[in-house]
């Protein structure tokens, strides 16, 4: 019986011992992670040791954009990495890329090749391991089966993966002691259009770097030795996820097919006691995370923190901040390693933004900033932000980008899964705004009004202001004073300044951070073009923009960005009304968000910045719309199957048991009203559920005939989802009322607590 399988899985989940993992030892103790870190990465240090000095120097110039990769350099690098990888057990290599499906992709090729020669007139075939520069630089996977949004026909199959030289190659352990060499790559079509997430991210990073350098050269020119030569975006991606027992997961078709529970009610206790957040990590989970961190350390992924999140069975890992291009690769590696390691521990990781209704969902908080090759963070306010004009200019450029293209940022995080999370009082709403905190708000107001900064108005005492914020006196003699940051953390804001960076909190947990970061980079770059033009106009024929010139521009952009700044509760009804007055878009559904990709102001900006072409933008729109429609369709069909094959049969069986019990009671002269009352309570629920599931079946048959993908997505949003919500309410009532011994699906109580 299905119920027995559920009970067996529950018992099994409670008796599983943690998997033992042998960490590397040194002198009888666990080896420090710092000594293991990056050992499976063909890093710059490794390259410098293995390559001839002229070749390595040429490669470094290539990274700076000052040299094109030539055949000699490519062949030398290919030979070196082949030797390095084979020494570590590599038998295959793969170009690892990010197609437009929120996944990574790879095709493995063997180093093995056959070499023919003739000896005394006879052919001699020798097996050798080879890897050439041309094999390193590009490969040719079939592009026809990846999402293209109409950019190419199915018969136009050729596509190219091209090595991203800025992201180091690495090996991952394969089966039987072997390994595979991974070559991070971009993926383009035969005609050069981006078919991936990384190409456009690289473009956005390049244009942002160029414009940021131009601004720096105008506001603080320096001699050649001290001049900033590189500006890059930094990123730290806090990854939230759920872990549940794998044996229970296998009994939930909805989790297996869609990543979320389409049915199921909350248990009496879930997150309302607020005791899971930062609580003790369960033993099996800690064992899995520890092994995951070991693998990630070998891959050079700098995981810094791990902890329980708010919802039961929810957790988070977060890395040290890195250059955004590398941070994205590392985030995708983190998700991949979590997935693989969880299997070894008989756990299942869930990255869906809302796998369980009624408890907090998962996000991927993207902490974004700008840094230079001199080690300066351009978004660091320093001790006196009111006189740090460089900081203010880049702060205002970021705010201007968000102000002008907030709807585009909303489109960048839109999906069928993230719709369940955004605006649910656990994550930011669909209105994009920025939070600065009281001190920075007062600084901007004071500059705009041409008056001294009043720290008292910001709740601060002037004598306590310092680089890290203010000093808090804990009023306990044996505890030291502690520093307080410049700003609080507004958990309701989608784009909050948190000390020396912005935290983009609306990004979904299962999506690649590439696309939202690409859009953010592009929007800020566009704002920098406007600021650059104004700085040039103010300085006139002077070689640099004076402090007075900069102040004029700063005041202008303070005024231009007031609408996007909000310091209050983003969950409140008052903010919805206030946002409407300010003209800020309140987008609650993904199909509406996707349309913002095609708004003229957004398309013009993305094309002007050289990040997307018209063809690429339209393809991206159609890919997102099509995926949304497919996601909802798959969920609806899964729900239909579960209700018909599992939920209704359990209800029918229970009604039959009640009817037989009532009949038996009457026959022996015992009052049967308890059974009859319960039977009468269940009957309308079952009837309504059967009626609505039939209605959904007919609706899905009708939708098969809809050819226009935009129309299909609209119908999925406005017809299918509401119908599924009604069906879920009836099914969850049955779960609460049908005898537990008959219920086939693992319940939330079991899914949450059996780890």
TrEMBL record:
| Gene3D superfamilies on file | 1.20.120.1560, Glutamine synthetase/guanido kinase, catalytic domain
**Any idea where the GS beta-grasp domain is?**
91-192
What residues does the GS catalytic domain cover?
Answer: 197-647
Task: Give the Pfam families listed for this entry.
Answer: Gln-synt_C (PF00120), Gln-synt_C-ter (PF18318), GSIII_N (PF12437)
The similarity comment for this entry is:
Belongs to the glutamine synthetase family.
Q: What is this protein called?
A: Glutamine synthetase
Q: Could you tell me which species this protein originates from?
A: Helicostylum pulchrum
